[in-house]
């Protein structure tokens, strides 16, 4: 007596009524209406199926398979996972001037993905912390940049401040009494190299919210300071 195995097939099957003897024109019309992501041709003359396969791939830009009897066809899929988005997160995206999500025009949205009762929801990090009862921890990135500048550490820092004020419009830039320059959450410190006083070591530190700005500043300062800065 042969044993039986139960397979969990995660597949939705829909029945569509159409002629089993449709010609190529009928099959092309069906594909145009159904908009499948993949096609399998399983019945017909090999030469005509090969011609139809090429026509389908060319006209609809989808993969088409014609496996022989007993042959296994492997179809690569990109599963679609439904995710709810909180109203507050959408409002924040609108306030930043970004367009609302469009299924036909995918775009990146920043948030925290949480799972509750087998459903996924994208919310702001603040809302996620509140719903999950978690405490927020600050994560900061650091980067070291070397540049050549014959001035004192304080003068170099002031020159950096002047340079950033001229480049970054609309950002909060401060030259603080503790000997640092601050751009939003980014802190910049200057020290001289032990081997060469003209070689300055800049230490940049920023929070994850300003990761893009921190990367931009590190790239900018690696290019050095313009001549003529006071």
Automatic annotation (TrEMBL):
GO molecular function, one term: RNA endonuclease activity
Every Zn-dependent metallo-hydrolase RNA specificity domain range: 7-67
Organism: Larimichthys crocea
GO biological process, one term: snRNA processing
A GO CC term assigned to this protein in UniProt: nucleus
InterPro entries xref list: IntS11_C, MBL, RibonucZ/Hydroxyglut_hydro, RMMBL
Integrator complex subunit 11 C-terminal domain boundaries: 130-221
Membrane-spanning residues: none
Identification of the protein by name: Integrator complex subunit 11
SUPFAM superfamilies per record: Metallo-hydrolase/oxidoreductase (SSF56281)
